Amino acid sequence: MTEGRIVQWLKQPGDRVEVGESVMVVESDKADMDVESFEAGYLALIQVEEGESADVGATVGIIVESKDDISKVGTSAPAPAATKAPASSSQAQAPTPAPPTPEAPKTAASSAAPPKPKLAEIFMPALSSTMTEGKIVEWAKGEGDKVEVGDMVMVVESDKADMDVESFEEGYIAHISVDAGQSCVVGEPVAFLAKTEAEIPLVKAWATSTSAGASTEKATTSEPSTSATTAAAAEAQAAPPVTTTSTPASMPVVNEGRIIASPLAKATAKKEGIDLKYVKGTGPSGRIVETDVLKAKEAQPVQPYTPPVGKIIATPDAKKVAKKEKIDLAAVKGTGNFGRITAEDVLRAAGKAPVEVGKAPATKSSPAKPAAAPEPSKTTTEIPAGAVAMNAMQKAVAQNMTASLTTPVFRLTYTIKTRALDELYAKLKPKGVTLSALLAKAVAIALSRHPIMNALYSEDTIVYRSEVNVAMAVALKDGGLITPTLMNADKTDLYTLSRNWKDMIQRAMDKKLTPKEYSGGAFIISNLGMFGVDQFDAILPPGVPGILAVGASKPVVGLQENGLVGVHKEMKVTMTADHRIIYGADGAEFLKELTNIIENETTELVM
Questions:
Q1: pTM
Q2: How many CB atoms lie within 10 A of CB 353?
């Protein structure tokens, strides 16, 4: 793809744009794609109208941070060929083009290189506006495999999550130039596709010679060299490609050629095994939407599951469990994204119920023998050797922590008695309510009563927000930190909040959260109370109004309301706030409100 045509603008000048929101529909050479925004702000100017085309990488619209900045853009915005916007704005762009394939150096080695055949390249995509390089976690397709448009070909590690990357081209993977576990800059080719199976050797030979020539050129110019990827011979496919899509003979072909469908419809069709050419679209201009796919699924007979042939896609945890339980992954049906096998799938195949995180499997107790006292743990922690490179998320956290030094903050600490909250939690815990959901609900109600605590600073402007979203910090197993966000927490009932939070925790651990689910500048809760921490200060990330550090609830001896000395439980909370828009009195009033809700108005949490 060298240029794209804008089919429809989903936002108009003056509209608010959030991270992850679709702003336009772009027609590529294969399909119509919804394009999401990597920035939050207001759409100030549309530079390429509907029906018009622009080169890949050209500026098609300008997003500014506040409404007041819209007038500053006006007609002084750069022409579509320009790429520089005002300092306070960000530009909506088509996907960044890959650099042209460098010509082989004029050496004896490169002079014998074969001519460039017809091929397509798979590039390292930009999964966020700040991403400059990506690490390939896993290849879902191997050399020699057939690839269709929309097929998931690889998993790439971004700042916050592992993202499935789809192919915009069809063909056969002839050569993989960046193996799993390796990184490369955004826009660099990571694999090459041959148009036909017969052309695989030609494309592979050309790609291999090009890589070797590039390495030679780097060595002669004294630049840092990288080891060339060793090309593995493409294995002949003994069996024809296996398809999991249903193609009932009783249903007529509705769509021929290009199929126009929403991204959600495509994902649902892939998950359910529905061939979109048999689905009639009921959306705008005949576009296929998710409900169309679900109706098509109901109209088709259930197909028996057939174990996959060829490459098996499974998570690292699933592979470990399969090795431990001696389970053949080829016989396991995957329930993860794009049919990926998860650890839970392997446990089910082994006849074992998946164990919830933090819970040990139940065992039969023997009433005749008393339980022996547990022996002291003798396990030791393995210490990594020397310097260990950070992963993408750890790098992002480090950058955010450094950037936090540019925000002036202040801190306030409050002591809250937790008797009423503890009693409510004891009643609701059997119904699936979590303590995290209770805290999020209490904070959300307090935020709704003090709008300044939910506002954002934007260059001499205070941006008030109608939605009250609450994020909670979660530490990940392999290092790093993420803040899943509960949307509209003040208006969502407690039981739904708890279900949503449990789901988000699991997807955060699997690195499957979408950008909208962990970004957006929501007020943050950081709870270390479960570790016995009495009190701590949390660092305020950039673009966030405040963060509440929650300590442990512990018994304290003190004077009771009846005048007698007794024991009660209390916890300390410390709020760090952006002092550019929030003042000491604002923070004190907010903490006073939160304390009153937890101590005296717990009924508000279940209403």
A1: 0.49
A2: 10
Name the one residue in this structure whose structure tokens are 């826009």: 187
Find out whether 277 and 259 touch, Cβ atoms under 8 Å.
yes
Question: 423 and 555: one domain?
Answer: yes
What is the domain count for the chain?
A: 4
Sheet containing 189-194, strands listed edge to edge, beginning at the edge strand earlier in sequence: 119-123, 189-194, 171-176, 146-147
CATH assignment at residue 332: 4.10.320.10
Give the Cβ contact number of residue 364 at 10 Å: 4
Whether residues 411 and 517 fall in one domain: yes
Counting Cα atoms < 13 Å in the Cβ hemisphere of 157 gives: 19
Domain co-membership, 562 together with 423: yes
Range of the domain at 324: 316-349
What residue ranges in 441-564 does DSSP mark as E strands? 456-457, 462-463, 470-472, 474-475, 481-482, 485-486, 523-527, 546-550, 554-559
Indicate the angle between helix axes 419-428 and 435-449, nearest 10 degrees: 130
CA-wise closest residue to 44 among 72, 5, 84: 72
Residue 450 annotated to the active site: no
Q: Indicate whether 478 and 511 sit together in one domain.
A: yes
Strand intervals (E) in 75-231: 89-93, 119-123, 133-139, 146-147, 152-157, 162-166, 171-176, 183-185, 189-194
The per-residue pLDDT for range 273-327, each reduced to its tens digit, is 788 878 888 876 677 887 888 888 877 654 544 544 556 777 777 888 888 888 8
Pair (602, 461) in one structural domain: yes
pLDDT on residue 226: 38
Residues 534 and 600 in one domain: yes
The strand pair at 523-527 and 546-550 is best described as parallel
Cα R_g (the chain), whole angstroms: 28
Same domain, 442 and 559: yes
Residues 425 and 571: beta-carbon distance below 8 Å: no
State both tokens at 351: 């006849």
Position 200 in a domain: yes
Residue 274 gets which letter from DSSP? Answer: B
